[in-house]
Amino acid sequence: MSTGLGFVHQWRNPLIAFRSSGNYSLPILPSGRGRGLIVVRPNCYKVKALKSLPNSDTVEAADDSYGRKEVISVNSRLYHYILDNVREPKILRQLREETSTMRGSQMQVSPDQAQLLAMLVQILGAEKCIEVGVYTGYSSLSVALVLPEGGQLVACERDAKSLEVAQRYYDSAGVSEKVIVKHGLAADTLKSMIQNGEGSSYDFAFVDADKKMYQDYFELLLQLVRVGGVIVMDNVLWHGRVADPLVNDSKTVSIRNFNTNLMEDDRVSISMVPIGDGMTICRKR
Ligand SMILES: C[S@@+](CC[C@H](N)C(=O)[O-])C[C@H]1O[C@@H](n2cnc3c(N)ncnc32)[C@H](O)[C@@H]1O
């Protein structure tokens, strides 16, 4: 519903959501509630027409209290434009291109995400970082490239074959001294770091593995990161599934629950950013 005339329904019953169907939205009940039955109570919904904006790539909140603020909805034309405006170092481009021929290439973060991670590390002046989920190394290399002399990135990954590619690129980029590769289950690595007395000594952490473990990784990393340090969680929008009450597979539920818990978690300040598949930046208080 990003272009042309569409309708946005405002609902009062949180159990009922809407899915766009062409220019109209149909009310849909979450699975498990009133199976197959669609209950429509017209008086409960306020219907408002979106103004038609030529070439508009924006959406508005259905709730008028957001002041009809239009926000960007990234389509493929705009996404290409964003990619054209990323400063991607040559070595990262080479790694991305090599990875694109491999199984699982869709797992690597996008260049705009990698650039944001590197920017956060630089803003923080981070020297000690952790990554959970390395794959072939795209996000870890973007962080390692901006670490200062003597900086360290603990890179946790369980797959040895992916790590071979990552290691080759750390070597070519001249950052292997900065990257401490931990081959194994990330939770075990993080627990042993805590046991080794490394608590509260890290500046920055990035989580991009095993969605069902998000809360566990977050709890472990909160112990390892210092006050003022940052933990970035990837895939928090999970291809949009988190916002669809009809989707209740275990990974979606895990991320949705993580997001819900985070809203109440006063140990951190948070900002959910709709970049890539969604990232939440958490700053430890
Ligand atoms: C989404 S990919 C990471 C992509 C990477 N951040 C990048 O930008 O290229 C997730 C990785 O986490 C690894 N992984 C999954 N579960 C893990 C676990 N329990 N411990 C360590 N690594 C794990 C997978 O083998 C996979 O390589």
TrEMBL record:
Taxonomy, superkingdom: Eukaryota
GO molecular function: O-methyltransferase activity; S-adenosylmethionine-dependent methyltransferase activity
Keywords, comma-separated and alphabetical: Lignin biosynthesis, Methyltransferase, S-adenosyl-L-methionine, Transferase
GO biological process: lignin biosynthetic process; methylation
Pfam families associated with the record: Methyltransf_3 (PF01596)
SUPFAM superfamilies cross-referenced by the UniProt entry: S-adenosyl-L-methionine-dependent methyltransferases
InterPro entries reported in the protein's UniProt record: Cation-dep_OMT (IPR050362), SAM-dependent_MTases_sf (IPR029063), SAM_O-MeTrfase (IPR002935)
The keyword Methyltransferase is annotated on this UniProt entry: yes
Family the UniProt entry places it in: Belongs to the class I-like SAM-binding methyltransferase superfamily. Cation-dependent O-methyltransferase family.
Protein name: S-adenosyl-L-methionine-dependent methyltransferases superfamily protein
Organism the protein comes from: Perilla frutescens var. hirtella
